[in-house]
Every structure is written in C-alpha cells, then in structure tokens.
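Task card 7
Instruction: Convert sequence to structure tokens.
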Amino acid sequence: MFIKETDTIDTIINKLKEDSENGIYISGILYTNSSIQKLKNIFWELTKLDNKPTIYIALDKVIDFELLDIEKYVNLGLNFRISMDNFTYSCEEFKIINNKLDSYLEKIINENMSPYEKYMAIYNFTRKFKEYKIVEEPKDISDFLQQLYEIVNGKYQSCNLRYILDNDYIDCRGFSNILQTLLNKAGIEASMFGFTVYDNDGSVIGGHSRTILNLDDDKYNIHGIFISDATWDSLNDADNLEYSLLPISSMRSPIYSTCQETILFDANNEKEFLNNIQRLKQSKNIFNNLREEIIRMIYGIDRKESAKLKNLNSKDFLIEIEKYILARTNKEINNVNIIRK
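Output:
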C-alpha cells in the first residue's frame, strides 16, 4: 500500500485492514516540517496495531532518518526498510552509517561555530577525506553472475555512502555526497548535482558532480545559494581554495553542459529569471508539471521555502520564486578568505 500526502491516518489504517500484504510504501513525499510530523503521527498509530506492517520508506537525505525519529519507532516495534541512493537498508544498517557520519562531525564542528565556520570546517574535512579514484567497470570477467555483481556494486564503490565511509578512495560524486550529507546534518541545507564537462574544443571529457548549498551567516554577512566543488579543491592548499562558495553564475562556463539543477537559480534580473523559466519549460528532462518540479528543486536546498510555495496560487507562486531567486543567488563572497583553517 502506497501512502499519499493527502491520505489521513484513518484512511491508512482502514486500507491496512484490507491489504493482505501488510506493507506500507512511502516514496516521493517532500519531507517538510508538516509532512514529517504527519508521518510521525502515522508511525505512532501503527505502533498500536497487533499486526504491525513493514514500512518501506525512501529517504531523500541521511538527515531524514533523524528528523523522522525512525529509530524511536523501531524500538516501539515497527520494522523499517530504508531505501536511499540505489540501496536498501535495515534500520540497524542505516544507523551504523549515520553514527559514523556523526562521529566525523563531533571532531570538526562545535555549537559555538557560526554557519559559515561550520561550512568551512566541513568543506576542508571533505576535500581531504580520501584519495580521488574512479572505480572502472569490469571488462574481462567470464562468469556472468560475478560480472553482474561487479557492475551493480562496483560503480558505487567510490561514491555511495554504503562504501565510501570504509573504502580508501572516493570520486567526485562521493565528495559531493559526503559534503551535502555533513552540511545537512550541521543545519546547512545542501544537495549534490551532476553535469557534463567539455573540453575547449567541445569534446566531452566526462561527467562531474558538485554541491549546491543554502548558507545564511549573520556574523560574516553571508546570505545566499552557492556552488562548491570539494573534488577540484582536493589538491589545493587551505589558503588557496578556488571552488568554494562560487556564485551560481559560475556554471555558465562553456565547458559545462546546461545544468537543469542550476538553471532556476541563475538570474540577476527579472528578464533572466523569466528566460530561465522558459528554458525549463523546453527542457526534455523536466517533468510535465513544471510547478511541482520547481518546488522539488527548491526543496533540495530550502525545505521551508518549498512548503511555502506549495500553498500559493499560480500568480503568487511565480512572484514568490522570482523574489526568492533574485534575493539569494549570484552573490559574490567578499570575505570568503577570513576562515580557511
């Protein structure tokens, strides 16, 4: 049984009584404050049942594990199967990953740090996390099942949290994954995104991954949405970082492909904003419902704003997005060199 955001607790309980499979599937839900509270209420009611269902839940980010208090409800008798980033975990398996990440944070940040100070500590930790290495797909394996296993698991060895916390190497997606995960756990909303990199002659070099983040710090007067690349800064000295807190406009370089994840946020005026909305409408990768896709883009770096947008009519929706984008993007950081260590 799949849960919809519009389902009430009574509806879910009644459906469970009619569903012989006795399983609940939660996927595609935006984990805003209101939806998180609703799910926690549902979990609480499910703990009262004699025949408790298995809950199959897809998380967007590691931080959702804590926000949903999943461990608490497991202790009350519920069974969860957690999926994230192409893998499925038991609560105990996911808890091990979460605890490792928490142990990193305990060593590099503290409650007295401002958001920017936390960001720099996490960024410097991430870019030196492990040696850069891409795991190539196997080419000469005779046994079909072994080959299939290597293909399924091998390509994730250097990028997925299932492996990179224990491996000795990491790739660009792994760097972006660690950075977004630690930032989110530190209260700084962030998401990783991918794009294609081209040579100056237009030939394809390959895919790459970066992190987009939403940073507010009154102490250093830093407020905006930025791009960071821990991979390309991994060999740089702490006082010579070139890819930390770049403005969104940095993605306009001809060596980068058109990046759907950043188009929305790249505008300096109303004309550019409206042009970007048109570009999104024409994108082959955009969902049929542009409004919902824009909300999900915002959701990746600002869940509170995405919840606000969901409740607006069409006219106010466009006005609010434009105001939000022009206020928070393409900001230059003049004091970014204050903290490097």
